[in-house]
């Protein structure tokens, strides 16, 4: 069996936060952010408990842009993106037999794919589960969908990349809070007969050694003194878990990305038997324009062939690649038959690339 990518969709929250808006709550400015990252705006799910302190005070009266909707969540964004992908693919929701939700910020820590399945209204209860791999999540979701199809048994697979890093950033830390936004994107991958695979090759990696450079870890357990401070013996029952905000060594992550991403894409290209010059589009995780520029220069792919929308949305983690793909398809940039080199990279550390045909 082969497979083809036949539909895509995306969704972003209605609350738009500009660099100037951020400059009112942390010590930063539009010039610093746009020169170092290329980011000008981001969208954020509003009304969450994370939007606290100065940030909430400043924004509570801020108007949302776009059509008014009901309460937004990661699930509502994922469902909207999935519906659009199904509509483009002309596949009925009841014909979906696998849903993969790639996210590190689910609405429920046990996973949000079954919630998405229910909200989509899938009558046949297809298998639905989460994949947690930060900004590499969507590419790893594509690869997992491909493996499920190859192993047999699945015909229509929805791969959804959705994240709301606004939930886990420290909104008082100017080094990180300026980078991220919330979004969801989805693609529909369908099994097909014949050897004409839409997914031509892939390359996947993890390196736990680099974990210290980017994480949002469970807080270390209380000291021995604190254990039992609630009157319990030997620290039982244990305290409720809590997680730290996202911590990042930006320079190390930057160096890591510009080193491993070109290598991985070169490897995927070699596996597919294609030269870099045969690529129509380079579609990278939208973390920083300078990373996009460095990788495309290394691969000698002209900047006109690099898909970039991070000026409008910032780094939306697992949502960024399918969101950028969807915009490029709907604007007519990416056309049927085009060959795309895509790569994700981020916390873990993880990184993954694939060559696929639209
Ligand atoms: N506004 C103004 N000044 C700032 C800001 C800000 N928002 N943030 C930091 N600064 C200051 C620093 O305090 C520092 O000041 P100092 O020189 O007086 O000490 C100076 O600017 C330089 O700070 P650096 O952190 O060294 O800036 P750098 O050039 O490394 O740029 C950045 C930071 C943009 C984060 C860059 O390192 C980067 O993009 N790294 C990659 C990050 C990335 O892509 N992460 C996503 C991974 S995907 C995932 O899985 C989540």
From TrEMBL:
The chain holds residues 89 to 446 of 447 of the full protein. The keyword Transferase applies. Keywords: Fatty acid biosynthesis, Fatty acid metabolism, Lipid biosynthesis, Lipid metabolism, Transferase. Belongs to the thiolase-like superfamily. FabH family. Residues 129-208 form the Beta-ketoacyl-[acyl-carrier-protein] synthase III N-terminal domain. Residues 269-358 form the Beta-ketoacyl-[acyl-carrier-protein] synthase III C-terminal domain. One of its GO terms (biological process) is fatty acid biosynthetic process. This is Uncharacterized protein. GO terms for cellular component: chloroplast. GO terms for molecular function: 3-oxoacyl-[acyl-carrier-protein] synthase activity. It comes from Malus domestica (Apple). Pathway: Lipid metabolism; fatty acid biosynthesis.
